[in-house]
Each structure stands twice: as structure tokens, then as C-alpha cells.
Amino acid sequence: MLMLNLSFQDFSLVPDDDPSLHLKALYKEIDKLKAEYDGLKKEQKLLSEARSSNIMFTQEFQQRASTMKKRLEDEKMNQAEALKKEQEKLADLKKEESKLSLELLKVQQELGRMDETHQSLKQQTEVSAAVPEKKVVFNGETAEGANALSFDVKPHVVYPMEGGTAFITFEEEEVAEKILALKEHEVQLGECSITVRAEPVQFLIPASVEMDTQVCPRRILVSNLPKKDSVERILDKLEIHFSKTRNGGGEVEDIVMLEDSGNVVITFLDSNIASGLTDKPMHEIELDRGKRCKVKVTPFLNGEITLLKTCNTTCSKTVLLTGIPTVMEKDNLQDLLEIHFQKSANSGGEVDAIVYNPVGERTLAVFQEDTANPE
Predict the structure, then answer these.
(1) pLDDT band, residue 273 (cuts 50/70/90)
(2) What is the structure's pLDDT at 146?
(3) Stretch (H or E) spanning 287
(4) Domain boundaries, the chain
(5) What is the pTM of this model?
(6) Of 206, 179, 231, which is closest to residue 341 (Cα–Cα)?
(7) What is the DSSP letter of 18?
(8) Strands 156-161 and 282-288
(9) Cα 125 from chain centroid?
């Protein structure tokens, strides 16, 4: 409350002789003071409202500051969790990188092995391509595992016969077993008889062969040749054909026919000719005017045996007869031996083959694979 402090000095200017003027001055002063009072009340009200507004603003600011602080703390926590997750991801990525590095190393090693295998297969392909064409037929035989991927080594044994001996081969193994079990046999030769001894036939044959082969750069192997024409004519026509550059050939140094297979080996002076010819496996050769035939050209292999394993084998159907004296002509004695061992009364059976070598003579017996009863 605004207090008025009036003293007697305030009224000293009012003349004493006119009380109404003095009263008017008082009212005027009172009105002035009331106006100031009302102004002060308004100002006090404005200040109060401003104070309330400031308090409210302060409260709102504090609330916003608290909310912002909490938000910052939450964001900090979220960032910490995100950082932790990123660190975990980074650790996982490093582990994955290490794993991928190991896998890459394994893949590189595997690629190295595959490259070696590729080179080996390429070499085998070249070797396979060097094999002349052979006509084959399926005979019902099957194979499993490694046997299905192996090459057969067919026995071809030349056996020197001593004088006074004979080889006799039976159709049935049981007959040969009976003859061997009896050991000694008395063979009637008309009015006289001889005693011969039955022994098993044993020798070494190849069990497995490993060869180191390589393609010869100057030679080719020509197969699938006609059988009716003479050897000289075939060799001449081949040399003429493969000497011409338009046929991919060149100067021929040597040409020879292999007697065992009937194939021809051609050697060129230039080492670049053979590889070009073998890129085209089939070549058409003119033998006569208007008569042409297709021959197969393959690489020629040079090789050497690196490993040879042998095994001892016994012929199951063949028996060696020893102690045969020269008592008559060779053919007659061989016939009588065959007649004797064909009779079941003598424990014999059907004879497939027989060879007799008299005393003082030299004979070579050839043993080959038994195709009648393949194992």
C-alpha cells in the first residue's frame, strides 16, 4: 500500500485567506497521487505477470533441459551400443576375412592340383590320341573300381622247348589236373610202349607295367590302312601324299610298316610337321585314279618301361610231357600221344593243341591269353 507522507511544509504555498483553493490543490494532488498509484499497481501487475511468465519459462526450460539431457544420455547409450555392435561386426568380419583367406589358400592349392591334373589329363589325351584305331565289341564282361580304368597286359610268352618233350593242352582244366596227378603215363606205340612224365607248365608273366611316354615331334603313326594293296604300293602312296606341303606334309626322312600291327610310321626331317598333321585325325589318300581311302593319323609315342612287376603263373589246361624218346617219326609219335591222352580210359579228354619236339631239335612254343575262358 502506497503511504502518503504529508507535512505542513507542503501547504505553505497555499494562501491562508482562500480555503477553497487550498482544498482544490489538495484534491488535485490526491488525484495525481492516485494516478501514480494506479500506474504503480499496473506496473506491479505487469511485473508480477512477467515474474510468473519467467517462472513458467524457467520451469519449461528446466523441463526441456531435463528432456534434452535424458535424450542425450539415451543417444549416448545408443551410440555406445551401436559402437559395440559395430566392433562385434568388425571382429566377425575379421574372422570371416581370416576364414576366407584360408579358403582362398585351399582354393589356390586345389587349383594347383587341378592344374597338375589338367596337365596330366592333357598328356594322357595326347597319349590316347596316339593309339591307332582298333575295332572292339562288347562281350558282356563288366569291371568295377580301379579295374574299370586299367589297361590289360595280355601275355605273349615264347617258351623254348627242350628235346624229347611235348606240350599238350586240354579243353577242360579237370583233365589236365588228372594227368598231372598221375605224374607218369605209359603210352602204347603199337607193339611197344614208352613211359612219359607229366609236369605243370610254369613261367613268369607281367603282372603290371608302367611306362613313361612322350609324343615324338618328328613321327606320325598311320593306321586304318587297306589290306588288299601291297606294302610297297601303300608306302609309296603314303610318302607321296605326306611329302606335299598342300597336304600339310613335308620332306619324309623314313617310312616303315610295323609288321605286327600293319600300321605305318613316317619320320619327317622337320620337327614341326607331325603336330600339324595329327590335329586332323582323318586324312584322305589317293591310291589309284579315282580311288581314295581314309586313314587315321595319330602321334607316335616314344616310351620306356619305368616299372615292371611279374608273377609266377601255372597253365591250368596245358601239361608238359617229358622223357619222350625218338622211336618213330615226329608226326606219327605226336598223333599217337594225342590219341592216348584223348581217351577217358587213360584219364584224358578232348585235346585242343599238342606240340612234340624230338630229341636234338629246337622248337619255340608260344603261349597267349586263354580267350575261351577269360578270368
Answers:
(1) very high
(2) 40
(3) strand 282-288
(4) 20-62, 155-208+308-368
(5) 0.44
(6) 179
(7) -
(8) unpaired
(9) 14
